[in-house]
Specification:
Number of helices: 17
Strand order of the largest sheet: 1-2-3-5-4-7-8-13-14-15
Mean pLDDT: 87
Helix content: 25-40%
Structural class: alpha/beta
Shape: globular
Length: 541
Amino acid sequence: MSAPTPTPRATSGRRLAAVAVAASALLGQLLTGTATAATPAPTTSPAASIAWQPCESPYGEGEFECGTLTVPVNWQRPDGTTVDLALARHRATDPGRRIGSLLLNPGGPGQPGVDLALGAPFSFSPELAARFDFVGFDPRGIGGSAEMHCDGEKADARQDALNPTDEASFQTLRQANRALADSCREVSGPLADHMDTGSVARDMDAIRAALGERRISYWGGSYGTLIGQQYAELFPHRVRAMVLDSNMDHSLGAWDILKTRTETLEASFGLFADWCERTPSCLLYGKDVRALFRTYYAAAEEGRLVYTLSNRPFPASTLRGIAYSYMYEPDNWSTFALILSYLSVVPEPPTATGTTTATAAAADPVAFTYDPVLCQDFDLDVPSYATMDRFQTELARIAPLTRVASLGWSYMTSCQNWTDRVANPQHPLRVNGTPPILLTNSRYDVATPHAWAANATRQIGREARLLTYDGVGHITYWRSPCMRDAVDTYLTTLTPPAKNTHCPAIWPGTSEAAASQLAPATALVDPMPKPHMNTPLSEAP
């Protein structure tokens, strides 16, 4: 199935909203009551051409071009079925100083890179806009690149099964996952079996060739770092510069993903509590925030925590999900404190009102772009519900306050029995022969923990340089002038920061935060990975 040439999508940027938006939507409901090694890269096919056409950006004025590039669905069979990749480009504003193309990917998995390119001149620095052509592409099966669709009823059935409580419901989850995966293949064809990041890395090299670039520069955020990591493995001598912002660690199994994310959540929440207790503008100023959250959690487990604006129950799963979501972006901590201030413990669980209206199951195919990528990149199967239960017990010991990172849990549950063979299973990175690669990461990042970046740096070896932001949050480029300037310098001069360089944290509500104002106005860089794109926060464990 071919994707048409992309056109401006005023609504597409909305798909890049931060996790906090999902949390706000959930609160609205409460208010209203409603391991094998990677296969060698086949030789890249002769460069195809991109028929660029002028297009517009919904984010501002500028000279933009959009086009498509045809690539094989299966790179092992380059003469077989094809897929058209949607692309967008913004030319360097200073052609005389142009360095080349800077490929961009915002992560996800499942986020469209076309949108990132259409907003890049308004979010990345003017220096990068002057020196580089910003080029974004929707990865195969995403957005304008033959977006993956699956059966809506099976997606709903899997949604209902995501929280097993015993072995029988665990088997129901496994069956629902497999039925959903099979439906993706039935609805969307052979592309459903080739959504893995290894294939995307090969697509990116085809884009490089079509752009006429001998070597490519790349900026990838969150899950987009995995694309960069695997591109560097497959095509080390075609890398000019590479920034991997908020890093994946493709060597980890289910337990290590859960453990590191949960440890980071516990530490990040502690920093939020400390900030609130010392910041007069926080609505919980002067209170013991840790003790308050502990009280709320115990009440939520008994059904006695309510959202006072609607007098509706606030389940423990929702409390966990909200806490996780608001650790992505410290600038939203005031909102998180506001939410907590509206919670109240009641003596008895509120009586059900019976006003909830059941929604009809979706009969038509629905866009479903997260699991088909994730579950072809990670083997996260566990043998039984007993294993999951043991994980939860150990995580509660590790993180007695926040208990479990919702995203790590949804990774595991979503991929149980998705496929018999993971196309791109975990393995330690094997990179040899690239120029210096710059990895950046927050010290406290609940989506991509700092331990992942440190581990990826060790795996890459001498080619890697790690730059740490000593604060909280996901995606570092806009965290501080220190981070942005270091990345800009590296991309334009190929000079990475010195080893063990750290940028100090900037806390919300401070004069430093007011002075920096680096956050992209268009909110283009989604803090991904996020709690499951197809899972309400209330469905977290």
